[in-house]
Amino acid sequence: GSNILRMSSGTLRKPKSAIQRNKTSPLHSSAEPAVKPRPRPSDKLNPKTIDPFATNSRPPSAFAAVYAKGGIPCRLVHGTVKHRLRWERLPETIPFDPLLITLAEGLRETKHPYTFVSKEGFKELLMVEGATEKAIPLLPRLVPVLKAALAHSDNEVFERGLDALVQLSAVVGPALNDHLKHVLTNISRRLTNKTFREKITVALQKLEEYGGKATVAVIKSKIPTYCS
């Protein structure tokens, strides 16, 4: 009888031990998820850390790197009233290729002093004697860079791109007409924004002034509402 009891108790104990195992195994499994969520926040933080850099460098600009290495032959001089550029040598003696394109790439920068150096440098380089002959051969490479600035989500970058386009048009004249259609789509998108409507209209009128009658047809092909 005691053997039966032992056996029965044994049979009873076995289920208990099985139940205990079942009870303990969920504890282990429930403990595992408690540990697993810990790395998840860091996993989520990693892309967040990268994202701001990705947005700032979209589209990517090599200007900051070139500037840091001394590849831009001018520096910002802080003034009491306004800033100015100091050129390391006369701008007239500096080849436009690749400097003018590099400065145009810098228009997409959003941080000081890159914003000022690129904008002012682009303008001043186009003011040198013989700028027309130097700039025209660069148009196929220069216009896509300006297009990227005009497509930028940052409003100030767009404005710098628009100003640079007008400055370029003043120098190269009708030579810009063949390339103008590539940038007009990005300009027309900003027309829906009341903030830019007047500025864009003035810019288009300047492009027409510098580019001649042929410019009107080019503008109207992308912006039908334009009136000269």
Automatic annotation (TrEMBL):
InterPro entries in UniProt: ARM-like, ARM-type_fold, Parkin_co-regulated_protein
The organism of origin for this protein: Rhinopomastus cyanomelas
Residue stretches of biased makeup (Polar residues): 1-11, 19-28
Segments for region (Disordered): 1-56
Official protein name in the record: PACRL protein
